[in-house]
Structure formats: C-alpha cells, structure tokens
Design a protein that fits this description.
Blueprint: E1 5-9, H1 13-24, E2 28-32, H2 36-55, H3 61-70, E3 71-74, E4 85-88, H4 94-107, E5 113-116, E6 138-143, E7 152-157, H5 163-175, E8 179-183, H6 191-207, H7 213-224, H8 230-237, H9 239-253, H10 262-269, E9 282-285, E10 288-292
Parallel strand pairs: 1-2, 1-4, 2-3, 4-5, 5-6, 7-8
Antiparallel strand pairs: 6-7, 9-10
Helix pairs in contact: 1-2, 6-8, 6-9, 9-10
The structure holds nicotinamide-adenine-dinucleotide (NAD).
Nicotinamide-adenine-dinucleotide (NAD) binds at residues 9-15, 32-34, 38, 89-92, 96, 100, 117-119, 143, 145, 237-238, 241.
Length: 295
Amino acid sequence: MDIQRVGIIGCGLMGSGIAQCAAEAGCRVVVKEADEALLTKGLKRIHGAWDRSVAKGKVTEEQRGGWLKNLSGTLAFPDLADCDLVVEAIPERLDLKLQAFTELDQVLGPAAILCTNTSSLSVAQLSPALAPHRLPRLAGLHFFNPVPMMPLVEIIRTLATAEDTLTALRTFVQKLGKTAVMAPDAPGFIVNRLLVPYLLDAIRCAEQRLATVEDIDIGMKLGCGHPMGPLYLSDFIGLDTMLNVAEVMFDAYGEPRFKAPSLLRQLVAAGRLGRKSGSGFYRWEGEKRMEALPI
Ligand SMILES: NC(=O)c1ccc[n+]([C@@H]2O[C@H](COP(=O)([O-])OP(=O)(O)OC[C@H]3O[C@@H](n4cnc5c(N)ncnc54)[C@H](O)[C@@H]3O)[C@@H](O)[C@H]2O)c1
C-alpha cells in the first residue's frame, strides 16, 4: 500500500510538524483541529516555516506552491474519509484519544491505517475504540520534536498489527526522509523510556538546588555533547506534556525514577508550560530562549 492521502488529528506542536513533513514529501494532507482559531494557528505555523525557508533561499516559490496545494484543514472527521493513513496528535489523554479513534473508525475506509503519536500510552489501549477488523491497521507512529528536524520515527506494533501495515509505515517514514526503528508497545517505547527519567532527574536536581538552571544545562550540553541541556529540552517539549508523560509512565512501571517532581507540578500549576506559554525554566520570546526564571 502506497500512502498518498494523510490525515492528521491535532495541529499543535507535533501535528503541524507531521503535516508539514508529509505535505513536503508529496502526500495530500488534511489536518483536523478542534476549532477554527486553533486550525488557523496550526496552519499558520506550517505556512510560516515554509515562508522562512523561501526567504532563506532553501526552497523555491514553486516548491512552496506545491506544498501549499498539498495541505488543507478541516474541523470535521468525515473530511478524512478517503485517507490511507491518519496520525493522531492530540493531547496525551487516553479519554480524548479514545473518543477521536471512535469517530475516526466510523468514517475511514476498511484499509486505512490508524496511528497514534502518543509519547507514553500503550498503543493497544486504543483498541476498544475500534471495530475488530481495524485492529490489524492500528499502530504507533512516534515522531520527535521538532518534527521537521528530527530524523527518527518509532514504529510501534501491537499484538494485532498486520505485517503489511508495518511495511506501509516503514515506506511512509522513508518517504518523509526519516529513519524508522521498531519499538515495543510499552510506555515510553525506546527513547522516552531512557530519556524521561533523565529529564525528571534534572528537574529534581534543580529543585534540590544542585546548581542553577543554566549550569545544569551547560553541564550536560558541554560535558556530554548533548545538543541542548535537559531543562531547556523540557521547556521545548512542554512542561504539561512532560507531566502527563511522567504520570502515565509512573503508573505503568511504579518506579520512583518516573515520578513527577513537585517542582514540575508547581510550574504547570503556575501556567509556566515552557516555550509554548512564554515561560518555563526560561523566559521565551517566541522561539527564542531568554534568561532563566526564578524557581
Ligand atoms: N511535545 C512533544 O515533544 C511530543 C513529542 C512526541 C510525541 N508527543 C505526543 O504528541 C501528542 C500531541 O502533543 P503536542 O505536543 O503536539 O500537543 P499540543 O497541545 O501542542 O497539540 C495538541 C492539539 O490537538 C488539538 N486537539 C485536541 N482535541 C482535538 C480533537 N478532538 N480533534 C482535533 N484536534 C484536537 C488541540 O487543539 C491542540 O492544538 C501527544 O500525545 C504527545 O504526547 C509530543
């Protein structure tokens, strides 16, 4: 199966990136958002990225024109009816995802593949929302943030996922110019299973005043050759997303290393969600990180 028409549910941080990459790869992409304002905001993010690429001379007007033609938006699930693949990228809440999957299952054709971009939930937990014939077409497709820059995608199979579904997804990932790894259907898959305890530990270190926020980040960046420090990365991911992921993983494994530090809860409660809200461990001016804020 050659995936040509792609539906994306949610045009936030991840959904917009996945939609952008799929449209650039030549797929016809429809993004579905919750309301008109969010849809406009999500599409604007993608258009903005393309405008910047044209301004920098990396992309021609003609290429951008082709990508724009490949991309459309909607508020209605039935507009995704002819998709070969739908990738869900709505917030990390099982109830919301189950509801979206129930609606999708009713409108999609029998051969359509249905994927979640969940960071931490088990993919098989979404099965109750689907008719039995759809289960071989259910898988996880886990992209990394920022999607246009990150070359890895984890493909997650459940016990029911069909081999031809996995083959179609591998080909799709390749078409996007990315590399796929096969990951188990266990919370966190490969990368977050290792990354999340590290990020939570860094937050615990900041909470215990091991060092300043900047020095923790500089330490891991220059001492370990990481492209960015763990607190900067947490701001980048979104502290609310981090909290949701930690809760799901702690629930699943019961290990203290997955427990959300109280500083993370306090920051989220204060509306300091990281880059997306303009403040987290750092103050942000749009995409630009400014000074560290008091904690
Ligand atoms: N943020 C990351 O670094 C990251 C990385 C990998 C995976 N993920 C996962 O990707 C998913 C999305 O995360 P995000 O960071 O993009 O979140 P986000 O909050 O930026 O975006 C979610 C979007 O979904 C929309 N939405 C909610 N309900 C909807 C519905 N019923 N129909 C259509 N749209 C709906 C919201 O309006 C919002 O725009 C989560 O499962 C998250 O765990 C996130």
